[in-house]
Amino acid sequence: MDAAEEERKTGEEDKQIAVVSLENRAEVEITDIVEASEGAYTKAEFDRLLWKIDLILWICGGVQQADKTSISTQATFGLRTDTHLVGQQYSWLSTVFYLTYLVCEFPGNIILQRFNVGRALGCFMFAWGIIVLCVAFAKNFADLMVLRALQGAAECTISPGLLIITGSWYTKREHPVSFGAIAALINYGVGTHAKNHPGGLAAWKGISLFLGSLTIVLSVVVFFVLGTPREVPWLNERERKMAIARTVANQTGSDRAKHEKFKWNQFRNAFKDPQTYFFFFITVTCQMPNGGVTTFGNLVYTSFGFSALDTLVKGTIPQSLVSVAHFIVVGLVCLRWPKTRFICTLLSIIPAFVGMLCLGLIKTTPRIFKWGLFLMTVTGNILLASNVAGRTKKSVTATILFVAYCTGNAIGAQLFQAKDAPRYIPALIACACLFGVEFVGLVLWRYYYIFKNAQRDRRAAALGLTETDIEHLGRLAAEADTDDYENEHFRYSI
User: Fold this and answer.
1) Which domain holds residue 213?
2) Given Cys at both, which of 62, 123, 375, 396 links 270, Cβ 3.0 to 4.6 Å?
């Protein structure tokens, strides 16, 4: 054998040794993290860690929601009159937002998978803030359409990005807790100032200027502070390992590694998995009422006889507070009884269904009764971060979910027709029917998860695996970036 051939073989052997060494190192790292998740840290340490991320996530969620729904508040403060909107033009301001959101969703998710999540969010939030500021200078329907279209494009990474960050910091049982009311108080202050100074800046313009400026400031904070545990600079090495270890129990894959490689088997599994289609169907039926109520909610309140300021004090603020209370109660219930998440969601839909139906069917009722019925329509759920594993499968499923989200919201805004103003009775009845359809779909979805969990339990029992074995093997598989469809030890949260 000549020297060249011997050198080539030696090189190949060295490469194989390097690959095996790398794989062994990864396996050791995975095992260490999984074992750490099973008792190396105390609850007090975990609680101190979470306080470092809780506040900024709540503020980001609140400001994002305030920016997105500010169009409804601005409509009651003269936006439609000052920009000369007629007919369905106001509805189209909401629809075009979700259409551009839809078009930009897939490339947005690719950006989140390839780059630092916090940095990407910061850049998109900065652009978002600039656009919200510019709304204050809109003169007509064309200006507003362009700005709302750009707003939808900038928004496309914000909700998915916050979802990724939530899933990387919080355990399954903590996911349902959310944010509400601050923006409504701010808008009330702006509206009151405009009312007391009628010759000054219009209230709807003040709302845009304030929210846009706030978003720009927040985007700088997000750029340097927010991210997954692997990305943020303000954790020491022990805290970073602790943050990763506490979410290993989710069995959806922690933030140990970036997993930049796009896995085609996970892409195919996303479309083979029935839960993907449940996600799509439930999200569309849920977001159609949401799209209408988000855009027309304050206008519905004015139909009860409330003034523009009243819609904030007696409408938006109480509704936000009820929403916060609802999520806190749901979060506490889920922490105490982990297998009640679907039941809590189903119970949340019942008052929304009753409230919408009564508003649509009962013609003459006291204003306070209508107010109470509309307050009952607060509902929500969050399941994606808990029941989908595998980086690529999560990304694909998130894209499908947000396509459904955009589709539902875009259609929902068109349910409210100008000819049905001010009460929009056909739209309210349609929303009630959609809540009913969503309820049935959620029941079927829950039983599908129960069936899959039972099926996997039987297979595990046949192999003689204990619950501890299943939990440990499930965490190992998840840390190796195995998706929920292939991970036989994964159990769906119900």
Assistant:
1) 41-249
2) 396
